[in-house]
Amino acid sequence: MSANSEVYDLNVNGQKRQVRDAWVGESLLYVLRERLGLPGSKGACEQGECGSCTVIMDGQAVCSCLVMAATAIDSKITTVEGLTQDDSLTAVQDAFITEGGVQCGFCTPGLIVAIEHLLDNNPDPSQLEVKEAISGNICRCTGYGRIFEAVNTAVTTRRATNL
Ligand code: FES
Ligand code: FES
User: Fold this and answer.
1) If DSSP codes are grouped into helix, strand and coil, which group holds residue 129?
2) Which of 29, 90, 127, 133 has CB atoms 3.0–4.6 Å from 64's, for a disulfide?
């Protein structure tokens, strides 16, 4: 399908999803949430500043609010809903709960996606590498200490369970 079409397909979480009645300038964030029923990615600033809308696109963590959905036709997109194929939690998600890395939770999906992406590419990151990886993800509540603890716990769990 053409990027100028009002109907096009996206590859999201391993599935071909048809987007209908779309305006070609809609952001990927908008299309995921409002047209494809995937509200996990959050819109806060919608200017690429906060990271709450982070998804994985072709192996890169990106702000979905800055991507025009119609330009993602040939891309492989993973949202927070697609990190597992069933109702189980990933080690990162579980660690956020056990370490108290969630308060209001608005930043959490973006942080989870960014950290999953980091650990998939670097299973044993240094503290500096963790800080760099989530430097684009703003949390207004936690002060980050518990988030860093959650990353440490997830690293240990993943190492033990190979998840
Ligand atoms: S909503 Fe996309 S970076 Fe803030
Ligand atoms: S937990 Fe509220 S913004 Fe992070």
Assistant:
1) helix
2) 29
Give the pLDDT confidence of 89-144 residue by residue, as tens digits: 999 999 999 999 999 999 999 999 999 999 999 999 999 999 999 999 999 999 99
Domain boundaries, the chain: 8-80, 91-161
- Give 98 Cα–ligand 1 centroid separation in angstroms: 26
The CATH code for residues 8-80 is 3.10.20.30
pTM, two decimals, is 0.94
**Which CATH code fits 91-161?**
1.10.150.120
Which atom in ligand 2 lies closest to the alpha carbon of residue 102? 1
- Give one DSSP letter per residue of 31-93, joined into a string: IIIIIS--TTS--SSSSSSS-TTEEEETTEEEEGGGSBGGGGTTSEEE-GGGSSSSSPPPHHH
